[in-house]
Inverse folding.
């Protein structure tokens, strides 16, 4: 079985990857990132320079508020000692409340990183699912599937196609993530928003987690796509049948986006398989939560795989109904 | 043997039995909806029969025995961007050939059909006929023992047809058996030494091609406005008449079936004695098509009537 899966996967991979246009498109991601990095330089949206300021204000009740600037060169303990010295020197009277200046820059590197990962993985996934749908429908509609199924089992075909297109998809994701990591390492420390974003991505742990989550998402959505493709008789049918799945994917995207912006009330969605990968991408959860969520996703993926194999088997058996019986007039 | 497969919406096969002998070419003939595709799918393992059994090479069909089958579907589909050599080798490897052997077989077969200089051509770069020949090679590359072909000559020009037929002849000469389903009686007569006729999901004839042709009815097609005169003439010779489509406004086309010992001149004499006006007279040829209409058409009409009911 593994041999046949490998053969079918290799054929699918070559069908997409052995074209000049694919490699040009693949290079576009890292090139665009480099261009954005060069164009943004250290200007425009650069973070505000650090300030070493201490602002003292006294309210009518006599309480003094000491607000340290973001760039004040002392730790929290040092700042407390500094205030203590000022009190002992008699420069401050009454109770003193120490506060931190709120950051003036709107750039939150963590939020930016999550957003960028979400965009990259979601876009690649949506594109790859389109490829996978075509890969199934193409052979289903012209009944070439029959000659394939005469030599291989439905499960071979399902997993061969999934792995073949999955490898293409992983190559695209790797180009994006690898390009991000490389650019992040090259970006100047005092760079602009793009540099902040890329530096946030240039951590092996972040990239590995994103890659693993992508594979989980592709496994679940990919098998669902194969099942849909096997049910469709032609391209138009496939587009109609796949619409609910792509609509779900869109809802997932916006929900994850809302979570990026701090909508913590949506975290329970991590337990709903279509949402699981993206919710985990946006916000790592406690080990127990992730374990349960991943178990549910694995169960849903197995179910999608079973449905895909069943749909493909039925598709081939049912294709006999396409031809209409001849009408004899006499 | 005694295959049965019914579908919820109707159709399928009820009692199909046939045998393909080693080294023979067996034509599988029937109108659309007769059950040919369903039978072939059961043989190939694409669907499981409700009853009956598929025996391959003397034993119950298994994954191993199905690897000894080659299959060419009616509707062909290869990756347009795939190279001819790779496409053939891919199918051979799916059937268990090692990569080197598969590529060697692909080279040999492409050379054999005159495409030796186009080994690396993509399918989309080949003419339609050449692409179809490549698809046929996909079914042949692993040297199967039984080749199952669904309308193998569709879309091929006469030159390509003759090359493909010589490929099949070569395959058969090597001891391989061929089962091919077709609507074309001419193709069946050209290729087969045995035929299996299917109608309404049942085998209505199985045997040698010559035996099938001998089953063709004897008689003539007569176009005349005088139905009573024709009936009287046919009855005097113990014959029967049936109306056929394709008559004229003032005259009907009739099929006159006669006992084998009654000659065509005898029928003409009987018609002349009754002064029956004859607009056209055409003896029925004792060929496969005539036999098919005699054996399978009544069943097909029955099937059509059942559907209408």
């Amino acid at each position: 079985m593994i041999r046949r899966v490998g053969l079918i996967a290799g054929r699918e991979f070559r069908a997409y990857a052995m074209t000049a246009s694919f490699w040009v498109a693949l290079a576009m991601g890292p090139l665009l990132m480099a261009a954005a990095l060069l164009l943004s330089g250290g200007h425009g949206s650069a973070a505000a320079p650090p300030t070493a300021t201490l602002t003292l204000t006294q309210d009518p009740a006599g309480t003094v508020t000491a607000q340290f600037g973001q760039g004040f060169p002392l730790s929290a303990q040092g700042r407390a000692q500094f205030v203590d010295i000022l009190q002992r020197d008699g420069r401050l009277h009454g109770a003193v409340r120490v506060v931190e200046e709120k950051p003036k820059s709107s750039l939150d590197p963590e939020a930016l990183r999550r957003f960028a990962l979400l965009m990259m993985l979601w876009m690649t996934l949506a594109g790859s699912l389109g490829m996978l749908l075509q890969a199934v429908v193409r052979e289903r509609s012209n009944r070439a599937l029959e000659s394939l199924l005469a030599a291989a089992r439905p499960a071979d075909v399902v997993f061969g196609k999934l792995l073949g297109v999955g490898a293409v998809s992983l190559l695209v994701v790797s180009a994006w993530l690898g390009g991000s990591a490389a650019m992040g390492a090259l970006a100047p420390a005092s760079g602009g928003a793009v540099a902040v974003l890329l530096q946030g991505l240039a951590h092996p742990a972040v990239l590995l987690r994103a890659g693993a989550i992508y594979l989980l998402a592709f496994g679940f959505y990919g098998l669902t796509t194969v099942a849909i493709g096997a049910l469709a008789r032609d391209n138009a049918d496939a587009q109609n049948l796949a619409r609910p799945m792509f609509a779900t994917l869109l809802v997932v995207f916006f929900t994850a986006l809302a979570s990026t912006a701090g909508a913590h009330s949506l975290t329970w969605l991590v337990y709903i398989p279509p949402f699981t990968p993206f919710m985990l991408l946006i916000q790592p959860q406690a080990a127990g939560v992730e374990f349960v969520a991943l178990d549910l996703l694995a169960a849903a993926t197995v179910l999608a795989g079973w449905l895909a194999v069943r749909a493909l088997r039925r598709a081939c058996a049912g294709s006999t109904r396409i031809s209409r019986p001849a009408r004899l007039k006499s | 043997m005694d295959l049965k497969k019914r579908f919820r919406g109707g159709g399928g096969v009820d009692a199909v039995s046939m045998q393909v002998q080693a080294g023979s070419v067996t034509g599988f003939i029937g109108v659309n909806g007769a059950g040919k595709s369903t039978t072939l799918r059961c043989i190939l393992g694409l669907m499981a029969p409700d009853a009956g059994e598929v025996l391959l090479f003397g034993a119950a069909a298994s994954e191993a025995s199905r690897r000894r089958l080659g299959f060419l579907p009616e509707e062909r589909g290869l990756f347009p961007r795939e190279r001819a050599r790779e496409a053939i080798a891919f199918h051979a490897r799916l059937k268990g050939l090692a990569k080197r052997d598969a590529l060697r077989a692909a080279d040999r077969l492409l050379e054999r059909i005159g495409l030796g200089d186009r080994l690396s051509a993509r399918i989309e770069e080949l003419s339609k006929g050449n692409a179809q020949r490549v698809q046929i090679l996909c079914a042949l590359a692993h040297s199967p023992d039984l080749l199952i072909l669904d309308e193998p000559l569709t879309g091929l020009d006469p030159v390509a047809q003759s090359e493909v037929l010589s490929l099949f002849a070569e395959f058969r000469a090597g001891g391989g058996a061929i089962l091919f389903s077709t609507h074309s009686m001419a193709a069946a007569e050209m290729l087969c030494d045995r035929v299996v006729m299917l109608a309404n999901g049942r085998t209505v004839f199985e045997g040698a091609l010559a035996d099938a042709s001998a089953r063709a009815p004897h008689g003539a097609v007569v176009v005349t406005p005088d139905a009573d005169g024709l009936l009287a003439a046919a009855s005097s010779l113990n014959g029967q008449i049936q109306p056929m489509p394709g008559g004229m406004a003032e005259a009907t086309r009739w099929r006159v079936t006669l006992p084998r010992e009654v000659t065509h001149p005898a029928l003409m004499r009987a018609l002349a004695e009754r002064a029956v006006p004859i607009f056209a007279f055409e003896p029925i040829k004792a060929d496969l098509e005539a036999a098919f209409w005699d054996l399978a058409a009544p069943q097909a009409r029955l099937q059509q009537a059942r559907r209408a009911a």
In short: Chain A touches chain B at residues 4, 7-8, 11, 14-15, 18-19, 138-139, 142-144, 146-152, 316-317, 320-321, 323-330 (CB under 8 Å). The first strand of chain A starts at residue 54 and ends at 58.
